[in-house]
Amino acid sequence: ERLSNDFQFIDVGRMDPPKKDIITRTNEFVEIYQPFSERQVASQAHRCLDCGNPYCETGCPVHNYIPNWLKLVTDGNVMAAAELCHQTNTLPEVCGRVCPQDRLCEGACTLNDGFGAVTIGNAEKYITDTAFALGWRPDLSHVEKTDKRVAVIGAGPAGLGCADVLVRNGVQPVVFDKYPEIGGLITFGIPEFKLEKSVMQKRREIFTDMGIEFCLNTEVGKDISFEQLLNDYDAVFMGMGTYNYMKGGFPGEDLPGVHDALPFLVANVNRNMGWEKNPDEFISVEGKRVVVLGGGDTAMDCNRSSIRLGAKSVTCAYRRDEENMPGSRREVANAKEEGVRFLFNRQPVEITGDGKVSGVKVVTTQLGEPDENGRRRPQVVPGSEEIIPADIVLVAFGFRPSPAEWFGEHDIDVADWGGVVAPEQQQFKFQTSNAKVFAGGDMVRGSDLVVTAIWEGRQAAEGILDYLDV
Ligand code: FAD
Ligand code: SF4
Hints:
This protein is α/β, with parallel strands linked by helices and about 475 residues long. It folds into three domains: about 1-135, Alpha-helical ferredoxin (Fumarate Reductase Iron-sulfur Protein, Chain B, domain 2, Orthogonal Bundle), CATH 1.10.1060; about 150-240 and about 400-470, FAD/NAD(P)-binding domain; about 245-400, FAD/NAD(P)-binding domain, CATH 3.50.50. Helices cover about 35% and strands about 15% of the residues. It has helices at about 10, 20-25, 40-45, 55-60, 65-75, 80-90, 90-100, 105-110, 120-135, 155-170, 185-190, 195-210, 225-230, 260-275, 295-310, 330-335, 405-410, 440-445, 450-470; strands at about 150-155, 170-175, 215, 235-240, 245, 260, 290-295, 315, 340-345, 345-355, 355-370, 375-380, 385-390, 390-395, 400, 435-440. Strand 11 (about 355-370) and strand 12 (about 375-380) form a beta hairpin. The longest helix is centred in the last third of the chain and has 19 residues, at about 450-470. The N and C termini lie far apart (about 50 Å).
């Protein structure tokens, strides 16, 4: 009888799925949220007001038909909901888990004004997980095949988004990746406590059944030349990400015990998954005092991985205040619950140590006036130097583009900051300066989000379809 109530959003408050107990959370690399039950998800989905002007769809970078699939879930029609989810999103089960919903769909929800936004992300996850478990699969039986073939470089969300739209339009995508599994940073960056690896493994099965071909363990430029892809395929899409690590530019960054964030996370995934080739790449933090520098998603993942790997203490130093952290608020809250200590308004100026790291020298900052982008820049408080003791320092300052050496010889322009130039607003969306080559995701927009990479990959596929005139 509750589901017939139009004022459900007042009677039933927003509820997130319960989290696992803290012992599991601080020791195991497993997702921390329990799944919603059918009853819970229907009751939460029914809180949607169907407000007529769905701001949530605007807030969602792939513009999901959110109120429509919430209605289907309320009615218990999970198969139709899954079908609808897949019209706009290539990886709904992934986005439901890792999107910073508080900044996107849920941040824009009309109810996010005192009542508590609808739990959109968890509904999206529920729909896809449940439909897959019940045997639902994308139906491509109506697709008429063309004779066109497109090479996709990178099996991250951008490449997968592109391949998904291509195959649904009868164009054969062949996806090349240097890693042994698909997913890009979804698989090799984001740890299991946010998204278990089985999720992408299931997706690989589904993509393969849809007809997407994968050539894994194949690095373009080394195992196969870019030239060959240009010759063998009707078009090429590049979704290769950004893989140059930003440095702080202060003394001590090369001391033993100081590590870049991503290799630390990747080595841990490789060990957990049995994919490890060189045990020396694994960075043990057991019993050690870990200091993580940075405030984004990568920093949060380092914090929470270190807790699970048995660090003696984990301290995260960030140069702005909590309000201005770029990472998802949900993940900051989870990190705090798991025992991470945050030091806000601390800017590192030196990593100290004699032969190996012993601490991080920081100064306290306060926020100055807003800059031209409206962001308030930190300023140093005089005389505020202090040293945070550390045995291991993980540097998570973000990523810069990593242009491939072949770009120049194939007339692929890059911007001053290193990103590939592939504008959305032009005749063929996301086409580069080489007419046969398209690009999207982090390598075009700078490191961002899974969902924005999916959007660009999907849009680029539309550009490719127009270019191939199919
Ligand atoms: P990538 O995911 O980087 O994929 C690029 C792929 O291209 C890789 O698989 C790479 O192996 C392959 N490749 C590159 N060059 C070649 C070559 N020459 N030959 C063959 N293959 C090649 N986003 C969120 O939305 N939520 C989160 O919680 C979140 N957490 C994150 C945590 C971490 C630690 C990191 C690092 C990022 C996180 N992000 C998160 C960001 C998100 O993962 C990225 O924005 C997104 O994966 C970018 O997608 P992409 O397809 O552009 O590139
Ligand atoms: Fe929200 Fe991300 Fe799903 Fe869009 S894709 S509805 S932003 S969780």
